[in-house]
Amino acid sequence: MRALKTAALGMTAQQMNVDIIANNLANVNTTGFKKSTIEFQDLLYETMQTGNRDGEKGRENPNQLQVGLGNRAIATNRSFSEGTVAETGNPLDIAINGKGFFQVEMPDGTYAYTRDGSLNVNSEGKIVTNSGLPIVPDINIPENSQSLSISQNGVISVMLNGEVEAQELGQIELVSFMNPAGLEALGGNLFIQTEASGDPVYGNPAEEGMGSLMQGYLEKSNVDVAEEMINLIVAQRAYEMNSKAVRTADELMSLANGLKR
Amino acid sequence: MQFELTKLKQAMMGQVDRNNVVANNLSNVTTAGFKKDEPFFHTLEDELDISKSMSQATDMSQGDLRNTGNPLDLAISGDGFFTVERGDSEVYTRSGSFRIDNDGVLRTRDGLPVLGEGGWINVFSEFGTPSQITITEKGEVFADGELMDRLLITAFENPKALRKAGSNFFEAPKGALPFEMEEPGVKQGFLEDSNVNPAQEMIELIEVQRQFESMQRMVRTLDDVYKSAVNKLGIYR
């Protein structure tokens, strides 16, 4: 009874589908979160009878019988469509209006990328993310600065105490990827590059393809609750259908048992 | 009489195979690019020389196109298959979920190279990684506006001869007669959903169960007939 295992694999796959949807729904309010979908692939086929068109005379049999053995999850695909932008009024909240990413330095010296622009200034005056990772390139905010402004092209300027002219401190750099869907999620709203995403392309905000910065705004999650609900219904029904296939296989075996009295 | 039992056995085994095929369809109800299998039965010839009473044909009808927005997700609207190199042969797929490796080669999720008209498709130019990849309806691959290659979209004069090879691939045995499509309908940012129709599969499941049941009854009736033959006719008085 292959059907039992085949349908069980289908159920496992749908379970994983529900896991992904649940994670999307859990992050419906996470800043800069990008939703994922799961992709499946069919498994091996057992060829029980091959089509035979040029066989012996009178025994031609053009029909074949190939029985598939179920499916498996091969990949999760992240959708990098932009989320809605919400105003916060906080001068260190930045949304990227385009496909760029902020680059941050991890504690081990490697780089990660994020769309979460809720930034802070740490005790050394560096601009860091909410989890304390410094953004690249380093920008130091002097202690006696009063107001901070970030232009659309990422130039950070501050007004120092007692001065009338604003002082430019530096420019935020963005990176973009050829195939952002291939980025690997690290958690904490961070992504790292993979073979599939390609190498990062560096550029300044508001340059071609990067997107301009919006100070005082945050990008919300791009999860669409209605869409996730529909996916959930599909996953649940698909799970149910597979369980029906298991039941039918069970019934067939029970009937076969009933053959001999 | 022996003969009837053999026929019933064949028919029951056929229903079991049919159940396996339906279970595989249901298992792949959310698999991108999956094409469902339709089980069907033949009349048995008197000599019973066919080992199986059931066969299957793949329904190549179009699945729904689902928008994913990812530049490396491709779907084909209409006929044709993406051509993929596996070992020293070519396999074909309708599942266009691709990626690009470190050297810029377009590959499937299993890491097999996707073929263009000029062989493997490499999207890296002398300037390195492109920032944007555009694929037109005709399958032309542009990296930052520069034409790199054209996807090889293969169609078949006799698609019925195609065999499934697993992992969303099809193999083309001799007689499938492949040819290159001039005007394919490649859609960037879309994936093709499975063409399994759940309602139809449910009905198949009901049919399988009831037909199996009725054949089981027939076997039991035959069994009763044999029993009376042995116990009543065979008694020597």
From TrEMBL, chain A:
Every Flagellar basal body rod protein N-terminal domain range: 4-34
Domain Flagellar basal-body/hook protein C-terminal: from-to ranges: 214-258
Principal subcellular localization: other
GO cellular component term, pick one: bacterial-type flagellum basal body, distal rod
Subcellular location: Bacterial flagellum basal body
InterPro entries with a match to the protein in the record: Flag_bb_rod_N (IPR001444), Flagellar_basal_body_rod_CS (IPR019776), Flagellar_FlgE/F/G (IPR020013), Flg_bb/hook_C_dom (IPR010930), FlgE/F/G-like (IPR037925), FlgG_G_neg (IPR012834), LlgE_F_G-like_D1 (IPR053967)
GO biological process: bacterial-type flagellum-dependent swarming motility
Domain Flagellar hook protein FlgE/F/G-like D1: 95-158
Keyword DNA repair appears in the UniProt entry: no
Keywords assigned: Bacterial flagellum, Cell projection, Cilium, Flagellum
Iron recorded as keyword: no
Classification via SUPFAM superfamilies: Flagellar hook protein flgE
PROSITE patterns: FLAGELLA_BB_ROD (PS00588)
UniProt xrefs under PANTHER family: FLAGELLAR BASAL-BODY ROD PROTEIN FLGG, FLAGELLAR PROTEIN
UniProt-listed NCBIfam families: FlgEFG_subfam (TIGR03506), flgG_G_neg (TIGR02488)
Protein family (similarity comment): Belongs to the flagella basal body rod proteins family.
Assembly: The basal body constitutes a major portion of the flagellar organelle and consists of four rings (L,P,S, and M) mounted on a central rod. The rod consists of about 26 subunits of FlgG in the distal portion, and FlgB, FlgC and FlgF are thought to build up the proximal portion of the rod with about 6 subunits each.
Protein name: Flagellar basal-body rod protein FlgG
Lineage of producing organism: Bacteria, Pseudomonadati, Calditrichota, Calditrichia, Calditrichales
Automatic annotation (TrEMBL), chain B:
Family assignment from sequence similarity: Belongs to the flagella basal body rod proteins family.
Top-level lineage group: Bacteria
Flagellar basal-body/hook protein C-terminal domain ranges (all copies): 187-231
Lineage of the species this protein comes from: Bacteria, Pseudomonadati, Calditrichota, Calditrichia, Calditrichales
Keyword tags: Bacterial flagellum, Cell projection, Cilium, Flagellum
Protein name stated in the entry: Flagellar basal-body rod protein FlgF
PANTHER family, per the entry: FLAGELLAR BASAL-BODY ROD PROTEIN FLGG, FLAGELLAR PROTEIN
Biological source species: Caldithrix abyssi
One Pfam family here: Flg_bbr_C
Compartment annotation: Bacterial flagellum basal body
BP GO annotations: bacterial-type flagellum-dependent swarming motility
InterPro entries: Flagellar_FlgE/F/G, Flg_bb/hook_C_dom, FlgE/F/G-like, FlgF, LlgE_F_G-like_D1
One of the record's GO cellular component terms: bacterial-type flagellum basal body, rod
Annotated ranges, domain Flagellar hook protein FlgE/F/G-like D1: 75-143
